Amino acid sequence: MDRTERLTKISRLGLGCNALLALLKTLGGFFGGSAALLADGFNSVADVGTDLAALWGLRLVRQPVDWDHPYGHGKFETLVAASMGAALLAIGGGMFAGGVRGFFSILRGETFERPDLWTIWIGLFTVGLKEWLYRRTKRAADETGSVLLLSKAWDHRSDSLATCVVLVGLAGALWFGRWGALLDPLGACAVSLLVISVGWKTSRQAFHELTDGAPLELEAKIVAVIRSCPGVISFHHLRFRALGGYLAMDFHVLLSPDITLKQAHDIATDVEKALRQEFGPNTLVTIHEEPADRGPSN
């Protein structure tokens, strides 16, 4: 299974689970008399939308290189990740505003409806399923280096925490009445700050990549691979950037002035193979060969 197929499989799994939770929570909130669970259900409906957007982006990523996308379509993955980061920021802001409104609504003594006890079971099921999705998606994101999957993983975790807040509010409303229900909006405000933080981090990372920012954490590894190749005396002018799930890089290598053009070409080919073996077969490598007796050294 290649990288894109794995990302698609995980995204489809998330889509199916979110669709199930959207149905359970909206129906449970409506018939069980829980406004908090109903709102959480609408959040799951929004998650279904982001999952569909992720699958659309991954479908575009799979398209082959063409004349107007000579570097491939990898940045569509990053574009969707940036959109998800923005969605998390919006969701976090909405949660905070809703929490503040709910808090003052309860203080003012506005309509309060005690929810049914069975709604708690829907919340517990949601937390368990979302935590399982978070762990599975986070592991896949770490193994593939996907910003898109990382944003989805943290979306699952934020949903799990948000549902924990719903559970606290449900328990408070069931056993302590109106004043116990204050725990719901207060917890929602706390979770919203976490969601905003994750959304900001995801958006910043995605926009850094969209604007050709270099993933500097990979520089030492790239340098080590180049220096390990036989025949390379030194190198300079290294530039690299991420294109979704793969890298593009170019640099100058300094070679012995006494070798033939074919030998220089063979050394450059070996460097390309070593870099693709380390960073993946889709890595784009452009190398300019120079004699070692001129040009700056690294």
Automatic annotation (TrEMBL):
It is a multi-pass membrane protein. Keywords: Membrane, Transmembrane, Transmembrane helix, Transport. GO terms for cellular component: membrane. Belongs to the cation diffusion facilitator (CDF) transporter (TC 2.A.4) family. This is Putative Co/Zn/Cd cation transporter. Residues 13-210 form the Cation efflux protein transmembrane domain. It holds the Pfam family ZT_dimer. It is found in: Membrane. The chain crosses the membrane at residues 79-97, 160-176. NCBIfam families: CDF. Its main location: membrane. It comes from the Bacteria. GO terms for molecular function: monoatomic cation transmembrane transporter activity. The keyword Plastid does not apply. Residues 217-291 form the Cation efflux protein cytoplasmic domain.
